[in-house]
Amino acid sequence: MNIRHAGSTFIERHFHALTHRNYRNLWLGQCVSLIGTWMQNIGQSWLVLTITGSPFKLGLVGAFQFMPILCFSLFAGIIVDKFPKKNILLITQTVSMILAFTLAALVLTNTVKYEYILVLALLLGLNNTLDMPTRQAFNIEIVGKEDLMNAVALNSTTFNMARIVGPSIGAVMMALLGAGWCFLLNGVSFIAVLFGIMRIKTTPYVRKERSREGVMKEIKDGIIYIARDPVLAQTVLLVTVIGMLAFNFNILIPVFTKNVLHMNETTYGTLMSCLGIGSFAGALTMSFRSKHGPKMIISIIGSLVVSVCLILNGLSSSVWMVGLVLVVNGFFNIVFATNSNSNLQMNAKEEYRARVMSVYSLVFAGSTPIGNLFAGYVADRYGANGAFISNGVLTLVLCLLIIWKFKKASGSSLLKKAGIN
After folding, report:
1. How far apart are CA 92 and CA 68, in angstroms?
2. Mean pLDDT per 10-residue interval, the chain, length 421 residues
3. What is the pTM (predicted TM-score) of this model?
4. d(CA 291, CA 288)
5. Which ranges does the record mark as transmembrane (predicted)?
6. How many CA atoms lie within 13 A of 25 on its CB side?
């Protein structure tokens, strides 16, 4: 009895979002599904690099997958506001499952071609354009504002637990059975999250009022709303830089493994797991401190440390050194992302929240095509080391400029609000 009570108290203190039944249903499903997603991520990257031998073509696949988010994310925010989010998630997760099974069938029947992978990446990107802001905005419906940051941190914990387990399983699968089985198991894993979503019972928030001036006016209003709030604006700009230049590991790590370290898919999976270990630790840290709420200073420090880690990655030449830097990088990646995500949701008014999170999806994932193409091009010309270093230097310079700009514009009042004494 005492052990059970102690466990319950620990969960209530550090993982209090799990006390909500609806959130538990979604979280448990994601625990399974995200492992499959990471298996597919590393399987697809290695498959493309094996078929083409080109870092740029691998970057092009990433660009195809994230380009729809860049083009249509702002429109997705309007849709998310006007339909029940549970229904939207059931549709998007089903589509993701079908696409995974399709890729598995192509690989297992030896009919896969690079062009087919590009098309499937584009379709997945279109689907994720709607899925991402829906999942972001759904959190507050099922846990409330008080437990929102804890839910975001737990989502990151799950995502990065999967980033540890998924690549490890995926690397073994690829070595023993081939990449096709990674895609097949990913398709099966969606059954868990679909079952969890169907068990959720909540009263959905649906914005009923209609703008007489149309969709473009609503998008414009959302952007103006963000621009007028210093916390939202600075957060969005920092997320843009980090999303574009610092989150290209799916492009650079396989190239680094193959062309710099001259290792196989097992080492690739290990390095991705190192990134996941750091990210998992970062997510747990944010979960434990979630009661204190998000602070701008955390995003600022996170962005600067991530920049330095990218440079160190480029200067490293051994598996152990790269793995160690990736652990640190992963930790601050998630500290930055979790704090920034929570900052936006906590500071946005309810009627603007879906639109704010659609902008978050736009700058965080939608900027990735530009970053993927840039990373792939630089890796093609100067190697993965050069790509890591150039991305790190650019990230550091741009983040410092943003920090200096807002410090100069807002002075001591913004610093006080950000938590800097």
Report:
1. 14
2. 47 69 84 87 86 84 81 75 83 94 94 92 90 78 73 75 77 84 92 89 60 67 83 89 84 83 80 83 78 81 92 87 91 88 78 76 74 82 87 93 80 49 47
3. 0.69
4. 8
5. 58-80, 87-108, 169-198, 236-256, 268-284, 296-313, 319-338, 359-379, 385-406
6. 15
